[in-house]
């Protein structure tokens, strides 16, 4: 063990309450033998996750269920899938697939072999100028639509979880969303599928010879599928029932209409795979027929006195041509105040209030005007209410306002779930009724919830008669579980017997509704579904009990307890929206998994073998490899900042001696800064391999989290002196960040340094800046903040605010900061650590990211030359500050073509964390780097020196630098040689 390695004890929880669903002691060592050894031999060690930490983090998803897998396989190819299937058949094992883990009813959970089909399964190929798209199953809907948007197209399915859910999961659940209805869902818009059957046979339904291939490989299967088709078609009453069931949204059970719509076995299987929840095979690739984007949008959020009144207005808007009509009840609206940007006065809305989010989308301006006229006629006849001042009840074209409305609507599950009582489990259900009966269904649902003592929230895709509701109860309380069970019995009878509705409209059957399948479909159709399963998966290896289950109480098995964790993370409902943005997602753990692991520690008895094993792994897997960028907070609808929690844990692990040293470093930072610059200058006189060897040895001896690894992309030292400036007539104060006072520009750079470029741009724009002479020894405090050194952080935060207040003449001049992370630190992150007096000083400061400042200067600058192309790396700090558009504007002034990679994200360099854990940056940037290096660019631009070093490391030294250097070159008078490396 390294000399200064922290012990896990500092992170051991103290409020343990042994829970009934805790991991048993026999799994403290992880996957048992011989399974572990068998799968490692079969697939390779890098594809098998077997520690108890691995098993726990995959045991939870967005559903109220929790089943512990025995092993996790990270499959890379269809051949891996076929090998797992073969192993399962030979050893009597069961297999469940998991991609994003956003399913709401336990479809992505298993008790045996769990196969991760997200990590290695992303990618999209746009076909026919966007008319079609070939998409791998691990691709998020958001990522797919980003690629299609450039062609004016998008996918038909549009689930609210598009930020996180994957295309494979959308198809497997036939998830639809706000606008898909019954005509734009996966079943209707899939052109073809490639899937792996339980036998290992791979079928591509898009091939002209698909049926010939299938007949050769699976003759018995083909015969039995055609026999089922003939049997169904010979029963007119059953055919009529099937057609009626799919006239409204329905994802309960297998798609029996696949036998009516498909002519051949391959076509039948293509239809059956949609909504099959991984019970019939693995979806390896999809080809979608896309739909028009229709960019001209008019949207309104309209408030009604009651839910029933809102529901009665729905048909009026659908008849007028609205693309989306979304319903939200009072509980949903009030809970949404936890979502950033939602008006605070929604918290005061009367309980009975409801709202409709109505949106029209048109291909052009003329069609948009016609839609708005039709909408105005409907509005004139409605009795709307405005219970709080922020309510306007008017249609708007403003993109920011519309985005705010949709953010509130899409946060339904997470916002309401986040406001549930601590320790309770959240159930999310959706059902559909004929749209004409929506108002009656709303009234009946509210009455049923009240009768069972649930103060639930209701929302839904009202245009399609599709309602969602949430219930919270304590899964560890037998009486509360019984109350929930009684509600489900009554609800299912209500939906089926009174409304002839679908018990699952778009979330797929799942564990919660499987016991009620026969109630909805009747014995004849249900037995057909069992026969389908036995025909396609005769050994029953795939996803048992997920879609079909004869146990009438199966929905009460495996309910998840929710132990109370640290306050910042306790609202988490484990939805997984945070995961795609997390830099460590493909390396160690995600924000959701960090919380899941913490909860399992609290389920365990104190100092149990399982708890000890989890703590031993948590230091590296959760704390050390968290970039601390807090982009999880931006992705989380209720703003949970798991990065902040990891910083708290870092602080807990510090010894008093380490805290004193960190404080001393802050107190004497001028000397530290000079020493660091000298060290960088000296290092560049030595061989990279020798430096890497020396730092590597020191890391092993001391501690990797304390000693940085030398990287060849680390630039030379900055100039000892900053450019000369005058305070008189200065329009702003320029604060060169300490990283730009220590590190110079990338290798091969020609031209001025970044501080010189900022000063030059200011002069050209006639907006001169002043660099205070005493900036040396000051810092934005992010160094200490990110590492959890509270004393050093507090000292430097107060010092920089006091200095900035003096430099800016009490806040009269703006403070320009030339590193986005430092701008964020000084603008926001220092505030909690300030004294009351210094907090008042900070309130008078105007901190401006240099990219924002440069964008404001553009009208004053004369662009004399441009680059051909530039690729951007927007930093995570810019996401927090909202500066990404300004970075693009500056780049567009300097280059004819500006590209932001679709997979751009946090580089995880995080100051020096990319040197402490280079594997973190390499993993975080892998997809973005692949996009960047796939073609040449004339410039690689960003807005933070350390992020630029990280991206240089990721791309093999492409020469990332500040966008302000490119702007200086583009506006430089006279002849200017092209900046090398750009």
How would you concisely characterize the structure shown here?
The chain is of the alpha/beta class and about 1000 residues long. The protein contains 41 helices and 25 strands.
Task: Output the number of helix runs.
Answer: 41
Summed over residues and divided by their number, the pLDDT gives a mean of 95
The end-to-end distance, rounded to whole angstroms, is 44 Å
* Beta strand %: 5-15%
Q: Detail the poorly predicted runs.
A: none
Spatial extent as radius of gyration: 29 Å
SSE topology:
Blueprint: H1 35-43, E1 48-49, H2 52-57, E2 71-74, H3 78-91, E3 95-98, E4 113-116, E5 124-127, E6 132-135, H4 141-149, E7 153-154, H5 167-173, H6 186-189, E8 190-196, E9 202-204, H7 210-217, H8 219-233, H9 236-245, H10 258-261, H11 265-273, E10 282-289, E11 291-292, E12 296-304, H12 307-319, E13 324-329, H13 330-335, E14 354-362, H14 365-380, H15 399-410, H16 412-418, E15 425-432, H17 438-451, E16 457-461, E17 466-473, H18 478-498, H19 510-513, H20 517-536, H21 591-603, H22 609-624, H23 631-635, H24 642-653, H25 656-667, H26 669-683, H27 688-701, E18 732-735, H28 738-742, H29 754-764, E19 769-770, H30 782-787, H31 790-807, E20 815-817, H32 820-829, H33 836-843, E21 847-849, H34 850-857, E22 867-872, H35 876-881, H36 884-894, E23 895-899, H37 913-916, H38 918-924, H39 926-933, E24 939-942, H40 945-955, E25 961-962, H41 963-971
Parallel strand pairs: 2-4, 3-4, 18-19, 18-20, 20-21, 22-23, 22-24, 24-25
Antiparallel strand pairs: 1-2, 5-6, 6-10, 7-11, 8-9, 8-10, 12-14, 13-14, 13-16, 15-17, 16-17
């Amino acid at each position: 063990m390294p000399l200064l390695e922290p012990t896990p004890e500092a992170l051991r929880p103290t409020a343990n309450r042994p829970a009934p669903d805790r991991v048993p002691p026999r799994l403290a060592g992880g996957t048992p033998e011989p399974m572990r050894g068998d799968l490692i031999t079969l697939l390779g060690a890098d594809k098998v996750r077997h520690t108890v930490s691995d098993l726990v983090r995959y045991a939870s998803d967005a559903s109220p269920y929790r089943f512990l897998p025995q092993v996790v396989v990270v499959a890379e190819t269809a051949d891996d899938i076929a090998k797992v299937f073969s192993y399962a058949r030979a050893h009597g094992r069961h297999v469940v697939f998991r991609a994003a883990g956003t399913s709401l009813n336990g479809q992505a959970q298993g008790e045996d072999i769990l196969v991760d089909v997200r990590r290695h399964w992303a990618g999209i190929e746009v076909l026919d100028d966007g008319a079609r798209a070939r998409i791998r199953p691990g691709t998020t809907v958001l990522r797919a639509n980003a690629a299609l948007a450039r062609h004016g197209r998008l996918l038909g399915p549009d689930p609210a979880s598009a930020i996180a859910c994957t295309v494979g999961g959308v198809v497997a659940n036939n998830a639809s969303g706000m606008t898909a209805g019954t005509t734009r869902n996966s079943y209707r818009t899939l052109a073809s599928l490639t899937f792996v059957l339980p036998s290992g046979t791979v079928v591509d339904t898009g091939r002209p010879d698909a049926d010939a291939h299938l007949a050769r490989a699976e003759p018995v299967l083909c015969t039995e599928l055609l026999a089922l088709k003939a049997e169904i078609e010979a029963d007119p009453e059953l055919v009529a029932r099937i057609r009626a069931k799919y006239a409204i949204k329905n994802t309960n059970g297998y798609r029996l209409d696949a036998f009516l719509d498909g002519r051949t076995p391959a076509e039948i299987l293509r239809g059956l795979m949609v909504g099959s929840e991984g019970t019939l095979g693995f979806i390896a690739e999809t080809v979608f027929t896309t739909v028009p984007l229709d960019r001209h949008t008019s949207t309104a959020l309209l408030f009604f006195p009651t839910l029933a009144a809102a529901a009665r207005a729905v048909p009026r808007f659908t008849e007028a041509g609205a693309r989306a009509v979304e319903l939200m009840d009072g509980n949903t609206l009030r809970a949404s105040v936890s979502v950033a940007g939602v008006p605070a006065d929604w918290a005061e809305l009367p309980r009975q209030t409801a709202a409709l989010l109505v949106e029209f989308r048109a291909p052009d301006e003329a069609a948009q005007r016609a839609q708005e006229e039709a909408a105005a006629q409907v509005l004139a006849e409605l009795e709307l209410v405005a219970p709080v001042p922020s309510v306007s009840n008017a249609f708007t074209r403003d993109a920011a306002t519309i985005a705010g409305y949709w953010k509130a609507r899409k946060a339904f599950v997470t916002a309401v779930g986040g406001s549930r009582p601590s320790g309770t489990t959240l159930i999310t259900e959706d059902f559909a009724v004929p749209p004409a009966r929506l108002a009656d269904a709303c009234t009946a649902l509210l009455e049923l919830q009240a009768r069972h003592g649930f103060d639930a929230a209701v929302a839904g895709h009202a245009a399609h008669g599709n309602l969602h509701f949430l219930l919270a109860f304590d899964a560890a309380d037998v009486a509360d579980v019984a109350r929930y069970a009684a509600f489900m019995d009554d609800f299912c009878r209500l939906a089926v017997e009174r409304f002839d509705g679908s018990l699952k409209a778009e979330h797929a059957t799942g564990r919660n509704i499987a016991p009620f399948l026969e109630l909805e479909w009747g014995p004849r159709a249900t037995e057909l579904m069992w026969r389908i399963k036995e025909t396609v998966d005769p050994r029953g290896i795939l996803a048992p009990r997920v879609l079909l289950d004869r146990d009438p109480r199966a929905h009460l098995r495996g309910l998840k307890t929710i132990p109370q964790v640290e306050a910042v993370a306790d609202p988490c409902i484990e939805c997984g929206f945070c995961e795609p943005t997390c830099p460590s997602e493909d390396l160690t753990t995600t924000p959701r998994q960090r919380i899941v692991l913490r909860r399992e520690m609290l389920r365990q008895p104190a100092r149990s073998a399982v708890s000890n094993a989890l703590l031993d792994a948590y230091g590296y897997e959760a704390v050390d490899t968290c970039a601390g960028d807090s982009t999880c907070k931006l992705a989380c609808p209720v703003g949970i900042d798991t990065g902040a929690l990891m910083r708290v844990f870092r602080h807990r692990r510090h010894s008093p001696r380490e805290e004193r040293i960190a404080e001393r470093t802050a107190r004497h930072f001028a000397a530290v800064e000079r020493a660091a610059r000298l060290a960088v200058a000296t290092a560049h006189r030595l061989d990279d391999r020798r430096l890497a060897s020396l730092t590597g040895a020191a890391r092993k001896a001391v501690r990797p989290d304390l000693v940085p690894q030398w990287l060849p992309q680390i630039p030379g030292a900055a100039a000892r002196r900053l450019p000369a400036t005058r305070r008189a007539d200065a329009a702003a104060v320029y604060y060169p960040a300490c990283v730009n006072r220590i590190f110079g520009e990338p290798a091969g750079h020609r031209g001025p340094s970044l501080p010189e470029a900022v000063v030059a741009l200011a002069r050209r724009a006639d907006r001169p800046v002043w660099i205070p002479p005493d900036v040396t020894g000051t810092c934005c405090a992010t160094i200490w903040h990110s590492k959890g050194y509270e004393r050093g952080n507090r000292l430097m935060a107060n010092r920089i605010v006091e200095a900035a207040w003096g430099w800016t003449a009490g806040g009269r001049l703006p403070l320009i900061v030339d590193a986005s992370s430092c701008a964020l630190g000084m603008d926001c992150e220092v505030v909690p650590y300030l004294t009351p007096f210094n907090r008042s000083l900070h309130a008078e400061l105007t901190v401006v990211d240099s990219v924002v400042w440069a964008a404001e200067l553009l009208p004053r600058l004369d662009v004399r030359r441009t680059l051909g192309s530039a690729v951007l790396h927007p930093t995570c700090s810019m996401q927090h500050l909202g500066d990404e558009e300004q970075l693009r504007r500056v780049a567009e002034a300097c280059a004819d073509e500006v590209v932001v990679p679709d997979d751009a994200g946090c580089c995880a360099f995080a100051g020096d964390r990319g040197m402490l854990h280079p594997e973190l940056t390499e993993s975080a940037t892998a997809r973005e780097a692949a996009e960047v290096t796939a073609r040449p660019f004339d410039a690689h631009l960003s807005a933070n020196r350390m992020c630029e070093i990280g991206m240089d490391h990721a791309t093999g030294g492409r020469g990332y630098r500040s966008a302000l250097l490119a702007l200086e070159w583009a506006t430089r008078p006279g002849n200017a040689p092209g900046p090398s490396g750009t």
